[in-house]
Write a structure and sequence with these properties.
The protein is mostly beta strands. Helix content is 11%, strand content 37%. A hairpin with a 4-residue loop joins strand 5 and strand 6. It is globular and about 40 Å long. The two termini are 30 Å apart.
Amino acid sequence: MKAQLTMTAAFVIGIMPMVGSSHEAWAGSSQGKGGDKPIVRACTARDIVGHWSLVKWNAPVHFNNPHAPYVMPHQVFQFGEDGAMKSAHSEKAFESSPAKVLQNVPSAVTYQVNAQGVMTVRAEEHPDASESWECSAVTENVDDQKRQVHLKRGDVVMTLWGKDGQPLDVRQLRK
């Protein structure tokens, strides 16, 4: 039985090329090694709780604003059970674990994950503004040298969507 992939995962693992900005254009299907297990599924709030580090990879989409934190090569995140989110971004590698790096960072951002795996992020200082990230939880290892995709079970792949439905950034996180 084929398992339906999320738009992000289909694009990330190269099953479907980017053919447009509509969500339907990215839909694809694939199977895991066992033939019936999905390679990814929509994240739940439970999946995302914890400390995460950005995985360096050849993302199919990159954020264009050179001043945005998304372009920094070293990023760590903390998603709390209470919906609080912390992050740190740097040009240089962090010398400590994500937990230690984020220990003194204030929680000024909140997040919520809906049933479709879309994470809405809001800064307390701008409650009317938000970002929508499609979040996919990786359910089995994918090591595709040709496409330069190296996903581990437990990773999450997140796509930031723009107002017009176009992908702005894709990130892979690992605990």
